[in-house]
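queue> pop job 88
queue> type: inverse folding (structure -> sequence)
queue> payload:
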């Protein structure tokens, strides 16, 4: 049965038909539009990743030519970064839940919100066009480093235009959230009564708004150089390739916090709910989000330790990198302190939360190895880096996303999923993930370089193990998705508050009505996680 039919007073029943969706200005519908689009690209990215792992199961050629491999890892990176991990949490759950959690009926600019979804779709079409036009997808890596990106015959121009267009979608979402949070909070929702997910989105939005234009301009400079031969980055034309790296990372380091801050926000929501206890150190978590967003602007040089930077500059960037680890560590401490002496209810979203903490910790600690000047010189451009960022982005953000999918599933779709199947899928994902990526850290320290379709025979065993892990992970993904698809049609009808959460989204029906609240939601003096309120 369709959700509109089974939940006639929900926003699903408000209007019917495809046009009522793709031209909707309702933040909940836009969140769901993003959900389907982003998830589809995630799956494409996963398939590309599985193909790479298949190529890497043995040295020499296995299933594809070196040139194809270069294009596959580039497309994988572009899709996973620009089409999946940057928008995933703000565009899906930010859109769906931010207005509800701060007690209002929509974002500040609903039409701009719809526009940003359409811009996402157009950017995605540009990225896909690289598959069919000219010499095929870019082969530069998702970083588009000059001067190679200026010279290669593959479709760099279309690929960077795609990233440029997608940037506008990100900027508009950030702008919308900042204004929404400043102007539209429910009358009693003072800043420090805001849920931590809203705070995380607020910090993220400022990065989206202020950093994205830099990469936009940088990418246009690549286009200018390729199309008009203006010498900006290519030494043969009188340009400076190191300038490209600076401009690129001045955006792309802050951008890693666009990828991870919203995930931290979700973790800060799920932990109090399943520990049945108010969050420990609410203000410390708020300030650490803002601190991460701020300090994140000053560390980009750690990507360039081996690019010929001066000694003092390298030491300063290394030091600042260690500084930005402090607020992240504060959050981990507060989460663990909240769980301590909580009455813990081990449900599927909490399993994902615990996997997040474990994997994010490995990602963070290996990040310090990259951030420390002396060790980075050794592991730079090896599989250690690939292992590190998959631990942060996949083991961290994507696991938080999966957790949130289960946490908010009843609210978004009005039905419950099968918990045993969900837990089995989680187990496969957790085991598969670690078998897939831990060997990459090992083989990286042994010296295997990244971005090659081939490797020396001494790296064989860890690569076989890693590829086997990718299949276990894929099995987990299929099971997780199948379970949720079945639940959406046939699951038991969900109540308003299946987990006993105390933030405002749990005070409204599942799924919410068109205007989010039938009755004015109740707020507590004591902040958003007051379990006495129930
Ligand atoms: C089944 C899941 C995945 C598999 C099997 C996989 C596998 C891989 C492999 C083998 C590489 C290539 C390394 C190289 O040759 O240098 C790679 C690169 C990369 N992956 Fe994944 N990955 C997966 C999911 C993800 C996710 C969820 C993200 C999220 C952001 C991601 C982001 C990246 C990026 C940014 C690169 C770098 C591309 C480049 O160097 O241009 N991957 N991945
Ligand atoms: Cu960085």
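queue> result:
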């Amino acid at each position: 049965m369709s959700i509109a039919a089974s939940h006639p007073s929900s926003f699903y029943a408000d209007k019917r038909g495809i046009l009522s969706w793709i031209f909707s200005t309702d933040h909940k519908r836009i969140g769901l539009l993003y959900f389907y689009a982003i998830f589809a690209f995630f799956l494409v990215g996963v398939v590309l990743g599985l193909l790479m792992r298949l190529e890497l199961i043995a040295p020499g050629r296995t299933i594809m030519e070196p040139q194809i491999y270069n294009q596959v890892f580039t497309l994988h990176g572009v899709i996973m970064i620009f089409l999946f991990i940057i928008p995933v949490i703000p565009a899906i759950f930010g859109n769906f839940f931010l207005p509800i959690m701060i007690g209002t009926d929509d974002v500040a600019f609903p039409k701009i919100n719809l526009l940003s979804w359409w811009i996402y779709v157009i950017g995605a079409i540009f990225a896909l066009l690289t598959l069919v036009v000219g010499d095929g997808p870019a082969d530069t890596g998702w970083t588009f480093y000059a001067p190679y990106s200026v010279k290669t015959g593959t479709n760099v121009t279309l690929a960077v235009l795609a990233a440029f267009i997608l940037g506008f979608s990100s900027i508009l979402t950030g702008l919308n959230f900042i204004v929404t949070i400043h102007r539209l909070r429910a009358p009693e929702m003072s800043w420090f009564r805001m849920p931590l997910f809203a705070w995380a989105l607020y910090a993220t939005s400022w990065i989206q708004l202020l950093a994205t234009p830099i990469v936009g301009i940088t990418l246009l400079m690549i286009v200018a150089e390729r199309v008009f031969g203006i010498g900006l980055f290519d030494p043969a034309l009188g340009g400076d390739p190191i300038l490209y790296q600076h401009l690129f990372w001045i955006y792309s380091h802050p951008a890693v916090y666009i990828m991870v801050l919203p995930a931290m926000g979700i973790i800060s929501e799920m932990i109090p709910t399943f520990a049945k206890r108010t969050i420990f150190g609410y203000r410390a978590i708020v300030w650490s989000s803002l601190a991460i967003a701020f300090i994140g602007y000053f560390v980009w040089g750690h990507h360039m330790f081996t690019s010929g930077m001066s000694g003092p500059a390298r030491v300063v960037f290394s030091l600042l990198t260690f500084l930005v680890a402090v607020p992240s560590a504060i959050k981990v401490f507060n989460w663990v302190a909240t769980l301590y002496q909580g009455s813990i209810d081990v449900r599927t979203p909490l399993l994902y939360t615990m996997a997040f903490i474990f994997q994010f910790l490995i990602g963070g600690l290996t990040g310090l190895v990259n951030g420390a000047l002396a060790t980075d010189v050794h592991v730079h451009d090896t599989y250690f880096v690939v292992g590190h960022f998959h631990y942060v982005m996949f083991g961290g953000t994507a696991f938080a996303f999966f957790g949130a999918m289960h946490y908010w599933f009843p609210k978004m779709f009005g039905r419950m999923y099968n918990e045993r199947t969900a837990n089995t899928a989680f187990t496969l994902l957790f085991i598969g993930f670690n078998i897939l990526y831990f060997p990459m850290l090992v083989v990286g320290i042994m010296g295997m370089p990244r971005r090659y379709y081939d490797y020396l025979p001494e790296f064989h065993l860890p690569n076989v193990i890693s590829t086997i892990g990718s299949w276990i992970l894929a099995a987990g993904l299929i099971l997780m998705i199948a379970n949720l698809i079945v639940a959406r049609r046939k699951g038991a009808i969900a109540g308003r508050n299946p987990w006993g959460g105390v933030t405002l989204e749990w005070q409204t029906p599942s799924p919410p009505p068109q205007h989010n609240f039938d009755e004015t939601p109740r707020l507590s003096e004591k902040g958003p996680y007051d379990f006495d309120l129930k």
